[in-house]
Structures
1.
Amino acid sequence: MKHVIIGAGPAGVIAAETLRAADARAEITLIGDEPEPPYSRMAIPYVLSGIIDETGTYLRKDEGYFDNLGVEVVQGRVEKVNPGKCSVTVNGGNVNYDRLLIASGSRAVKPPISGLDLPGIHHCWTLEDSRGISDLAKEGAKVVLMGAGFIGCIILESLVARGVELTVVEMGDRMVPRMMNRSAGNMIRRWCEKKGVTVFTSTRGDGVEQAGTELKVTLSNGKAINADLVVVATGVAPNIEFLEGSGVKTDTGILVDQYLESSVPGIYAAGDVAEGFDFSTGARTVQAIQPTAADHARAAALNMTGIKTPFRGSLGMNVLDTLGLVSTSFGLWNGVGGGERAEVIDEENFRYVSLEFDEDQLVGAITLGHTDHVGVLRGLIQTGTHLGAWKQRLMADPTRVMEAYLAATQV
Amino acid sequence: MQRSLQIDPEKCTACMQCELACSYQATESFNPSQSRIKVFMFHETARFVPYTCTQCAEAWCMKACPVDAIQVNAETGAKEVIDSLCVGCKVCTIACPFGTINYSQSTGKVVKCDLCGGDPECVKACPTDAITYVDADWTGLDKMRAWAAKTDSQSGAQA
Ligand SMILES: Cc1cc2nc3c(=O)[nH]c(=O)nc-3n(C[C@H](O)[C@H](O)[C@H](O)COP(=O)(O)OP(=O)(O)OC[C@H]3O[C@@H](n4cnc5c(N)ncnc54)[C@H](O)[C@@H]3O)c2cc1C
């Protein structure tokens, strides 16, 4: 059996390893278009803040790792997928497959405003991007960060670590609007302001122009800010263009079934490019998070080798450290119709917990300022544990999650 | 034969020796907040539950790590955090459905039980045998294993 994988990010690499573990004799080719060894883009912020160097982002650190695993790594961009011929076009030639996994991820996209092609404007998506940022984000440099979503907020932390003078512009009415409710998102904003970061919410960047050696960013609130560097983190889109004409059905990403198989038999998709089932809603969505990429990859690879492995859907979850304020969100953090919310807010100490229930089952949660045992929130949600009497205790004091969990599973 | 921690809450008296011993082993200070094992108290029912990582086979933490910083110790079977590789991203802390890998703000890394390299201090410190170190086959961690299986999105199961 010959397996070809497009994309050498976490999903591609974990799939290659899973394929090898399941089938010692399979031929495995991993095709990636970035010049570096397979790396983890989510480690980039830690390169920027100086915790690791670039090699610290490499997914596997041992010299010769992929050779030893019997995985052929090809550098090149797949131009086309030809399901009729079971081949992909790369580097001017064709590579044949029996099973194909598309793990081409997403890429950062620019909002439709003028001036974003000027020098000094960078995404923070690839190692290449991070070098551009490193060059400009020197101590004292003026930096505008467009977008305070999940990725934006992670970059925020590393930019501040570099000692820049930072302004954050976010279209939503709070920070991390797609992972935090209003209370939590506004608390993160106050925290950032307290740490000396200027934050504009409900504000758009309207355009960027050159102003001498600096850039001038015009905002929808009428202000204009000068900057040495503009970092654009306003959104991402799955890499699916090369699938045109292949018959592989796409919506936002590649639509996959519960076996991670696309509309074309024998072609699978995993990670940021895949639009797979969401555990909480049962609908298909592009989650674009690391744990989902890893889970997809494992299930897809097993299915590719013929070990039928249904995937029940991945749980949306995030953890974020914003200048030392750790926040998490899980599942249906915004609640469900007919459900109930338990909430404790400690504005002064920046601590917050909200739990969302559907009857006596936990379906979503947000925490701020808590780092211990947060994983049980995932466990409780994904196992659908009936909390019984503990539901009322949690309604009265949502910080008692760990006790509720132990009571439900251990005592 | 690999061994694992067996915990019997019936025998726990909440003396907290395990937390002290663990924190001392891990950080050279007697500081229960740094302990990898934690005793939870249910005063209503007078039950005390020592709780830590079971080194589960699913290894959610290890599989979620983006930089290969959690690895299996071939001798003990423990999933260990390699401090020099951990970047402190915390993805493992939300991936572990047991909540037994936690972020330490003082070190900027995540911490979890590593079985002390095969000679767990909590076991030695426990005066009532509530925590023992036994052959992995008979640890009675079944309840937690079942929990792990239920969380497994690949098993198709939901309670
Ligand atoms: C700054 C930053 C911080 C993040 N932080 C977090 C976090 O804290 N938690 C979290 O859960 N997630 C985080 N993420 C998201 C996480 O990194 C992604 O979910 C994960 O990388 C997805 O893995 P993947 O393998 O699907 O895609 P990718 O990692 O994007 O890998 C896909 C690879 O395929 C290549 N490719 C694309 N098209 C082709 C082609 N035609 N031919 C060949 N190769 C191709 C791409 O260039 C890329 O190298 C972060 C991302 C960034 C950028």
2.
Amino acid sequence: MTLGSQILQYIISGISIGSIYALVALGFNIIYNTTGIINFAQGEFVMLGGITAASLVTIFHVPILIAFLAAVIIVTAAGAFFERLAIHPLKNPSVITLIIITIAGSILLKGIAMFIWGKDTYFLPSFSGDRPIHFLGAAILPQTVWILGITGLVVILLSAFFKFTLAGKAMRAVASNRMAASLVGINVKKMVLFSFALSAAVGAVGGIIIAPIALMDYDKGAIFALKGFAVAALGGIGNFGGAIAAGLILGILEALGAGLISSHYKDAIALMVLLLVLFLKPSGIFGSAQESRLKKF
Amino acid sequence: MDSEVLLTIRNLDAYYGQAQALRNVSLHVNSGEIVTLIGANGAGKTTLLNSIAGVLNSISGKIFFEEEDIAGLPSEKVVARGLSLVPEGRQVFSPLTVLDNLFLGAYLRHGRKSKEKIEEDLQKIWGIFPVLKERMNGYAGTLSGGEQQMLAVSRALMARPRLLLLDEPSMGLAPLMVKEIFRHIAELPRQGTTVLLVEQNARAAFEVAGRGYVLETGRIVLQGSITELLDNKEIKRAYLGKGYREVWE
Ligand SMILES: Nc1ncnc2c1ncn2[C@@H]1O[C@H](COP(=O)(O)OP(=O)(O)OP(=O)(O)O)[C@@H](O)[C@H]1O
Ligand SMILES: [Mg+2]
């Protein structure tokens, strides 16, 4: 392989893992935008999605498409349940209380996953085989194509939802002004529930499509949460387009770093990006400073 | 029909933590009226409207709307009953378009059958405030203060309320804009919307209202028809300034 096609190879694998980071970051943003909370349990939804689909396919021999849908539905329900249990009962909680609760929630979800699945690693077969597609000297796994296609679809559906549907507009209204939203008749608490369910669904999709490339176990959530949070921060918290661009950037940086320097540094890159953003430009590279002054973080 | 009581408040107290902001407030609004409530900064006007609209729920006392007690209901349920609040400081959905703001004003009316009616109401709004039509695809946050006030009132009207609560619609607006907005407020009862208008700008409020209440440090201290209030020396001194009659007549 020439250096050129090798770099192309890294970039392609970076884009596919970056898509997952972008999906996790979208999950962060959906909840942030309706509630002002950073939900640190977001990574657990990714893990739950991947591990549920993998065990449905390998243990119960469910067809992949049905396992996909079932896992999304189960994790969506888990997201809604999490909101009802941990967030809903609080009256006027402070932001710091909410953050601690979502961290506690992520530990709890991880514990439940360990209880159900043990410490084993689960593997989901690729959606359509593993024979690589050759492109300019680089070998592309068919799963990469699935990842890009499904991520693209999720992004389009989400934007259409927020832009054109009544429920999507209502969620944006809640994000913009809670009091005014309830004054036009929007049930704010219902929208908060809905945002948790929606972001759990998005996280689950990410976990399922990445599972054939990254093995899944009960402990995978934290690293996805960290990467997703780094991406959300880099893209500007709450900024959807920023999350996608930042996800791809981080994914490519990681893949290049792992390929050209050493794979030991892979996870350190996300942390470095996060720290740099927080020190140098807390509003993210795509967020405006003025906007971030109005935010709670 | 016109003398039917729409809203009755009895012995309302409201609290912010330990601090009591309303004491034993009682008032009523008849169907078809414009009633104003005036008072200085911090008198409790916003607290009163927020208590009625369900924004504030640390209250005790009774609030009857169309003969049902709505005290303590959350805002979204109060709107559903036909009572809308235009909150202090307009509170438009800044990152949404003017059209979406209005569309969300009709949030509880959306359904298969109501599409045409909502469209009809939009046309009415365009008729009243043509500037909103011109800016309908612009973001609400980019409108001028006066335009935002027009939008806030219109958004509330999109719910087709039978009672509209207005919290200082004149705040921060140029006199000409105040005139324009109050001209439309004066029209509302004829279109089936009764109005409870909170103002610091007593002059503007007295121009459109038929009756009024005066709130001081959380208590109603005076009430009566506008003519009676205008004859009161204390009101002239405290809220209208000397030479009020000379200015307006
Ligand atoms: N969120 C709050 N927490 C604590 N006290 C409050 C709060 N909001 C208002 N108050 C207090 O309650 C009293 C009444 O306030 P309110 O806002 O109802 O007055 P207002 O008549 O609307 O004044 P303005 O004309 O300035 O709008 C004031 O003493 C105010 O300081
Ligand atoms: Mg006020």
3.
Amino acid sequence: MMSAGVELDRIEKTYGATTTLRAATLDVKPGEFMTLVGPSGCGKSTLLRIIAGLLPQTSGEVHIDGASIDHLPPRERDIAMVFQSYALYPHMSVAENVATPLKVRRLSRMARLPALGRLLPGQARTRREITDEVRRVADLVEIGPLLERKPAALSGGQRQRVALARAIIRDPRVFLMDEPLSNLDARLRVTMRAEITALHRRLGATFIYVTHDQTEAMTMSSRVAVMMDGTIIQCSTPQGLYEAPEDLRVARFIGSPEINVVASDTVAGWEGGNTRLGQLLQRPLHIAFRPEAVRLSAESAAQTDMLHLSCHIERTERLGHDVLLFLRVLADGAGVTARIPAADFARLDAPGGVLTASLHPADLLAFGPDGKRVALPGLAAATNRGLSHVG
Amino acid sequence: MSVETTGAPRAFALPLRRKRLGAELPGWIAYALAAPSMILLCLLMLLPIAVMLVMSLTNYRFGDLSYAFIGVENYLDLADDRTFWRALSNTFVYVAIVVPGSVALGLALAVMTTGLRRGRKIYQMIFFLPVTATVVAMATVWKYLLHGTIGPFNLVLQSLGLPAIDFFSDPDLALTGLAIINIWSLAGFNMVLFAAGLTAIPSELYDAAEVDGLSEPLDRFFSVTLPLLGPTTLFVIVTSTITAFKVFDTVAVITRGGPRGSTDVLLYTTYLEGFSYFRMGSAAAMTVVFLAIIMVFALLQTWVLDKKVHY
Ligand SMILES: Nc1ncnc2c1ncn2[C@@H]1O[C@H](COP(=O)(O)OP(=O)(O)O)[C@@H](O)[C@H]1O
Ligand SMILES: [Mg+2]
């Protein structure tokens, strides 16, 4: 099977006066697992439906392998789609559901008639081939024993597998998946996540996967495109998005708990830091840092470059391996979230709930008033501390 | 959360009268509360039917002061009564025309109007109008429209050089003429039922069908719309059948069973038997037969609904 690259070139979509998509541009490489992530209502489904040909865009072009496909109806685009609600045909058995895309392509309309169609001559072989295909694909997603059931008699996870099988059977060049796991419970979601990535590796096709769940995005894909307000604001590897967000909205959306954001004049009032940082903080900026960049100690350490803030603990949340501490800076009342391993927390001795939080200037990300990333030259290169805490 | 000593929760904790929420009531209270509706149900629904059943076993004539039980003689008489059998077969033929016609037309109207980008409401309202019209008044209009000599329908036929069709004086066509009127008045109602069924079909299913290659309107109709309307269709068929079975007013107003008994239907025969010939016992027996037939359809509906068309 051939996988294909998908290029979206400044896709716009307007409904009357409201603009749902504005200049959405994205380049998906052949065989890539690309995730589109963004909050609900940002236009992810709309974009996916435009790629599938279910919805015409107002302007902009969709290319597959360099060729424009905007004139092609959905069935000729060689694209399969998995829907959030699974969209299985309720009156058909699992086997019939999975077979539908093949039947439509390989059997004439007469032959597809219920009951009557079977009597037509010269299609027994095609039917047998289709049955074999259905069995093969059903085994691939482990629904072999369910083939005779109706969708109503299946659990959510099983329905999702049927929907996947119906997409796989056509051997399409591109798979589109619109929040396929959002109706499943948390445990099942984790298993299906692994299965879908395994499926992607086995099929080698291009996957465009839509989700509003940043954990899914970060764990499944080779690259993630973050979408906000109808446009793609950054597309990068999961690591890249986490370490080097180009937009404050991306920084806030990716990572849990949310990144700390403080105004630059507040940071300027914090103790320590080097002179270079002092100069940089003259401008009005949003300063952001990850919760795991915050180091905690009971006594004020005297390390030169570090920023030191005296805080008191407002609240703690134990996450098992890690502990979240919600801190309040004593001097200016700024809120800071810290994430430290549970073992370190046990050793931490904070008399009266007061402790010192330290930050390395290199861990600070700066964003201009428009939310765009501003380089902070002169500070040491970012360390890799805490990056295992993605999601 | 603790419910402790602050003032506000205490006010809630000590209401004047304690209400038992979710507690089980003693049986006699439950029966006492249900009694009024049970009594009404018996008086208004079951009693009249019981009286009719009893009456069908008597030789009661309207206005008589006495009557005698004659067992199933009324039913045996019916079995030999050519008029009754003709009425029964006329009714079945009538139903066999009206049900497919009104269901298919209702479905077609529903699919066409729901697909409209604008004006859906106004079209559906217009098609629903016949449902709200009084059948007797409309029957008069239809009698004129389809009249053999002065009716506009025939004037059109004649102007096209075609032979005139006199629906209500031709024994072969009179029943069809009445059926057309019923289709006309029933289709709008069925359309509304189908339209409600259509809105319940998830749009993602149409998207899936389109991606699967079922993009032609006919493909979409037969692979998504029609199967998903299954339960609605069954309901519509059964209600239409029952409505068609009860045909009476157009017969009474337009044909009075004629010409030559060709439009003599079950309810009309029953009516004549009871209120023209005053043979109440015999009329009651016919009504029992009528009710039995309707009951079969109602049972069929619940049975099939439970069994098959449910997803
Ligand atoms: N038919 C429509 N008419 C008007 N607005 C629409 C229509 N369909 C979607 N929208 C709007 O487009 C926006 C994006 O929708 P959608 O793509 O479904 O978001 P997402 O999938 O990211 O949650 C929403 O704000 C929604 O209100
Ligand atoms: Mg969506």
